[in-house]
Amino acid sequence: TAPPAPTTSAPAPPTTISAPPTTVAPPATSVPTSSGPTPTAPASCAAIPASISFSNAALPDPFQPVAGGARISTKAQWTCQRNEISQLLQRYELGTMPPKPQSVTASFSGGTLTINVSDQGKSISFAVKITTPSGSGPFPAIIAYGGPSIPIPNNIGVITFNNDDMAAQQSGSSRGQGKFYQLYGSGHSAGAMTAWAWGVQRIIDALEITPAANVDLTRIGVTGCSRNGKGALVAGAFDERIALTIPQESGSGGSASWRLSNFQQSQGQNVQTAPEIVQENVWFSPNFNSWVNQVNSMPVDHHQLTAMVAPRGLFVIENTSMEWLGALSTYGCQRASKLIYQALGASANMGYSQVGNHNHCAFPSSQQTELTAFLNKFLLNGSGTTDIFRTDTTYSNFDQTRWIPWSVPTLS
Ligand code: MCU
Fold first, then answer.
1. pTM (predicted TM-score)
2. Does the interface predicted TM-score (ipTM) exceed 0.95?
3. What residues are annotated to the active site?
């Protein structure tokens, strides 16, 4: 079957991208200040410069504060470092994640959780379908973007999230459409993935105040495939109430690195890159348009997005048979993620498994043992081997010292 490639292999340069600025202005909307799922800067965190001059062809050092000075050396410092990564990803790629809204109420009936959100005089309502195992709960549950495309055993609940209803993703002209934008305005800087992740946060807020839904708040997972896999990764990054994040075949824009996807393209492969992705759809903020042609000037790449999930459970599923996803790029990016988990003493909580010879988003049985281990360990109070890094391909052209030149500290 055909890979998820765009209709043209060499898209024309976008007309809407303006010349990149040399400095970055602060986000249009204020960054979160309230407590809640979005990483917020503890008062003791150093300010992030409003103007950043950066250039690095390699994956940026995830342990180096962007303002300079010493690299971090303790786990306690990771709180501020993670917050900085969050703020930078919002500024460069994702757009602003609004803080917890003024009001979230919920009702549960007939397996449907209805969530009502009000903020600054505007309101929206959306609903998710929840199926839970029989017996007495509360049960673990996985929030599945558009429904699951991994096998979920019947002792784990499924919460089906219609993410397209929160933010449309039909094409590049879907910008500003969906319930998130009804609440925050069609000109809000958040791209669709940020809007969806905000929606996931509201689902969890609603579960917190709705015991009748019978979901165990300490055992929540999130998954999605392809474009929805990119989205599920962002949701897992931004909400520490999520115990397990499973992005499936998210590829470029998800578990891949912008820099490595460019490298693959320079080697003649048909790989999705930043300039293409912002034309194809509205997953990212318009902020990103200024950077897609100079990704080496961004102080963040996607090993830092996965780093935001750390030290919580993360299982990255990829497919070597889909050139467009960026096979080497996800491999290299996730090698860097694994090192970040290692620095945090949590290597066993992160897995990467890349297997080909199956259709896009068709889960192969060869990954079942790995998936089962992650579900057992993070959602079923069990155990399993989750310290996984596996591919069915050899990347003889991946030079780790070139792409990951930084050393891995052991954070005390
Ligand atoms: C892998 O995710 C996307 C990809 O980024 C797009 O370029 C392609 O058009 O669609 C993929 C997808 O979501 O397939 C279902």
1. 0.91
2. yes
3. 226, 360
